[in-house]
Every structure is written in structure tokens, then in C-alpha cells.
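Assemble and predict.
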Amino acid sequence: MSDIAVHTSGSGPIERIYATLRRVPTIILWLIVIVWSLPSLSVFINSWRTRDAQRSRAWWTTKPDEFTLDNYESIFNSTTSGGLGNSLLNSMAISLPATIIPISIAAFAAYGFAWIDFKGRKGLFIAVVSLLAIPLQVALIPLLQLYVNGAHLTLPWLDKTITIIPDFNLVNTTTAVWLTHTGFAMPFAIFLLHNYISSLPRDVFEAARIDGADHFTIFWRLVLPLSVPVLAAFAIFQFLWTWNDYLIANTMAGTNPDAIPTTILIANLAGDFGMNEHLLPAAAFVQAFVPLVVFFSLQRYFVRGILAGSVKG
Amino acid sequence: MATVSLENVNKVYDNGFQAIHDLSLDINDGEFLVLVGPSGCGKSTALRMIAGLEQITSGEMRIGDRVVNEVEPKDRDIAMVFQNYALYPHMTVFDNIGFALKLAKVPKEEIEQRVRRAAEILELTTYLDRKPGQLSGGQRQRVAMGRAIVRQPAAFLMDEPLSNLDAKLRVQMRAEIASLQRNLGVTTFYVTHDQVEAMTMGDRVAVIKDGVLQQVDTPQNLYDRPENVFVAAFIGSPSMNLYEGRIGVSGDRITATIGSQTVTLSDAVAAKRPALRGYDGRQVIVGIRPEDFEDVEFAPDTPADQRLSAPVRLIEALGSEIMVHFTLDATTVDSGDPDAVEERHGDDQANAVGRFNPRSRVRAGDSISIAVATENMHFFDADSRLSIWS
């Protein structure tokens, strides 16, 4: 404390150094913003340039008369892997359930963990949250086997096989993709929503209990409306992540043109030996457009939700 | 409307802490009972047990004729007003007040009618479409009241409902709540740490300390006849001056020695407290209320042996009265109130507060003569700390 007082009250060289140092974080932040924005800018500009232009000169030397719509025309007219429109619909068919379903389940779970007193609550919560540490890559093959072959248990001496999960044969469907996303989203969703929901004022719930509300009423009439910021924040997170996912979609549905999302289509667009590489910037931009719309329409909640979940208040 | 009664109620928390010891309390039908005590004394726990928000460890709790030990809060037919109002922030005032009725599946027209009536009583009609965030503290407080009265419950439970309001509003709401309760005639259990609220609002006041009930009585009786040192010091502001003293009896004459000075007690004391005679030569705790000290100039008839002389330390002029802080060479007694501000000025330098006539011309630093209204002095047993009566 006394050190700070010395630096701010004096007007000598130390103070000038201190004033300069105080500007450093802002400068660094601006640098990060610029460095991280440049690739996006280059993709955006390149998406309007011909293959030759992209390959011969750098994007920052572009003149306005070079711009062309050809790349966009090509990707929308391409029939590779079922076409772009079809893949965008697939992306939606994956991202929407993969966003809505975990939120609905996690909100109930978070309320239970936060406000319903039951035996083993703490242990169960720790178990759920510690699942965050499990990398999803290790589960890809077992999950795939589960989707294809189901789960069967053969009892050793009786020679009897019991089916626990039937052979749904979900491989190469969008269902397999969003089911996986749903499962892996759950620990983080419960963790985030629990942080928020448990910080809601206890008195309000007690008042509701006296007013005659049971747990379901409290959840439906109080917790959900009061948790809109954190629900929206998580929805954005989850939507962006599932929309941009490549790995899970490729593993679960990578070979079915009727089920692949845009991310895989873009990769396929490049073609053999990258002969259509020049289409990638335009396709990437189309793919990025949807999350941008989602983000900017909900960003108010996004910022608020992150703050509300971690820092109380 | 109903009585509320607690019989030997105990509350022990999981960590072994006993918040309530053998609490027995009866709240009569339509009565306004205030439970008052210093912070952490278990008063909120008591209220929450009546509400059903806390389990009772042992004992019996009845609302009306029904034992409610195991009854859910919503089925106890009570309404509660919380310290920080606990309004539903996303609902309008109308929905806040009508929430309980809606959950009870009361017909829409009746909800409308009852909410409007409650809003009229509380002068909230123009705010019914607003949300709590758009209301001032006093208005929120009224919405919380509205939520309670609209249900027409058997009892109101109020947990320090005024403590979040500023001083001026608190005085106003104090009167409003008290008169509202009188008009509605609903049994009310009110918890506060503010003895002024307790005295002004309650039909009866229960004083509690460390989970143990100290005394239940009307405000005036509590003030005039405190049963022990704690109640004596807790009720009244500024609090009663308490010193170690010694009783002397010779014939009809009883004297009390405080520090190096001795006063002769008037005959009224002996009549009121016959047991005091048995304390000849024994140590007691002497209590004197500030208003029982007076500038001798304004009590010229006081005999010389009912006066104390002391140097004045500090003067607080309040217009209607003067608070005179003076120093006695006695030992103060700790009343056991954890919220009390400890004033220490070295050994045998006990601080005393007197409430003098505003025309008094005493100055800080003066050495003055102080008249003591000995008939109003209080005496407590030094060991049991109970009041000495008969």
C-alpha cells in the first residue's frame, strides 16, 4: 500500500515509469486483437480473389478491381459431398439438438445439486464435474462401437447374453454426432449453471416455499427466468463449439454425404491434391457467418453470463 | 388467525451448536409479539423454525390447535416477510403479491380483487405493473408486506423487515406496520435486534440471549421491572448504568455504596424490594437509568444523601435533553450484550450517562453534584444477576 502511495503522489522519474507501465496491458491487448484478427481478414479478402491471384500475390496487395464472386458461385453450385446447402442443414441438425438438450438436462441437474438436499449430493457433484478432465478423444472409438454394436453382457457360466443397449446402428447419422456432443457438454454445462444457480439468493426460494411452491414450480417459475443470462451464455458456447466441430462429426458421420456438416464438406471441397484450394476461404467464411450472427445477437448475454457465473453478483 | 405456541423447543445444528435452549413461548391470537436480542442470539432461528424453514431438534410447535413440527412451510398457513424482502425480481408487483394465490389455484378474478385490495391498503396501486428493481426501498418493503397480507394467513412472521431501510423511513414504516397489524388483527411474530422497534411495536416483547429466553412482558414492564442484568441493560437507550455496589442496612435506613460514594435509598425502595434488607454488607449490582440522574439545580429538593458528585467528561446536547457523561470511581458491570460498546477509562473510572434537563448549564470538565432518583434504582444479585425483589 505504502509503495503505491509513493509512486502516485510523487512526480519524479519513478512516477513517469509507473505511468508508462500502466499503459502496457492495453498495448498488449491491442496487439493480441490485431494479431488474432489478421487471419480472419486475410480469409475474408482472399475469398473474393481468383485462384491465380491468391497463389501469386499476398492478400494485402489486393486492389479493389480484383474482387470476384466466382469462388462463392462455385461453392454454392458444387455438388461435392452433397452440396453446401445440404451440409449447412446438417450442421443445424447437429448443433441445435446438441445445444438445447444438454441445457435442458443440465439446468435440472444444476438446480438439484444447488438446492435439493439429498444424500451424497457433494460426492456426486464432484464426480460429475471431474468428468471435465476426461479428453473426448479417448472415448471416440468406444462410443463408435457402442453406437454400432450396442452393449451386450455375456454372463460367464450361464452362457447367456444380456442386451444393455441394442444395436442402434447410429453410425453415419447426425444423431450419433449430437448425442456425443450432448454427453461431453454435460459436465461443463452442469458446472457453469450450478455456479450461477447456487448463487441466486436463498431468501427468494424460501419465500417461494412459504408461498406454496414445490421444487418444480421454483425451478420453472423462478430459476429458469432468473438464469436466462447464464443459459444464453452456455447456449452460445455450445453452439459455437458444435457448429465448428470437425473431429466428432468426422468420426461418427464422416463418410455419409447426407449427414456431414459444413466443416467436413469444406475439407472435402479442397479436392484431390488441393486443386480447389482457392475455394476454401469463401467456404470458410460462409461457415463462419452463422456463428457470427448467433454471437452478435446474443453477445449482451454472453459477457454478462460469463461474469455472472464466475464472479458473484 | 390463531395462536402460535412453542413448548420446550430446542435447536441443535449438525455441528453441535445449540442455537435455541428450551424455548417456551405463547403468542396469543391477534397479538403482536416482538422477539428481540443481540446479534447471533438465535432469534432468526426461532422465527425460521416457526416458518418451517428450519427443523426443530426437540420440543413441540403449534399453530392454532395443530402440531406443526413436521408440516411443510406452505402448509403452515403463515406468511413471512424477509429482511431483504426476497421479492421475485423478474415479476411485476402484481405477480409478486399474487404469486401465492396463483399457486393455490385461486380463481383469476379473486386474485385480481385480493391483490388490488392489498395494494390499496399499502398504497401500491400505481406501482402494480412495475418490477421490484424499479421501486425504492420503502416500496419494496411494502410489496413484501403485500405478499404477506394478501394470503390472509393465520400468522405473520417478520424477520427484521425494517433493517434495510434508512432511519427516517424506518420510523415511518414502524408505525405503518404496527397500525396495519392492529387493523388486520393477525397474530404476528416479529424479530428484531433493535430494542426501540421492539418497545414501540410489540404488544409484548420477548428478550432472548444466546438462545435462552430472558423475559417476556409488555414493553413498559420490561423497562420498569427487568428480571435480570441483561434485560435491564438491553432495554432502554442509552442503556442503564450498571456498577458493582454494596448494600448497607442500619435500622430502617438502607444505603447503597457505589465506588467511594454512598446514597441513602428512599423508603419506596425498601417497600418495593423487601428482599434488599437481607443483603446487608453484601456485594450487589446497582443499576441506574440515565433519566434517574439529574442536575441538582433542577431537583433542589433532593436530600444531600441522595446525591453523587462527579467530574463531567462529555456533554451531548440533543435539544430536548442533554446527555451528560460523567466519571464515577466505581467498577462497571458487563451486561453480557455482545453488541454493547465497551467504554473503559481505567480502573475505578466508570463512565456514567445521565439524561439532564436541557436548561442545565453543566460543562465538560466541571465537577458537579448529581441528584439520584433512588426510588427507581435497580438492584441485582451479584452471583445470579437476577433482580432483587422479595
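Chain A has 14 helices and two strands.
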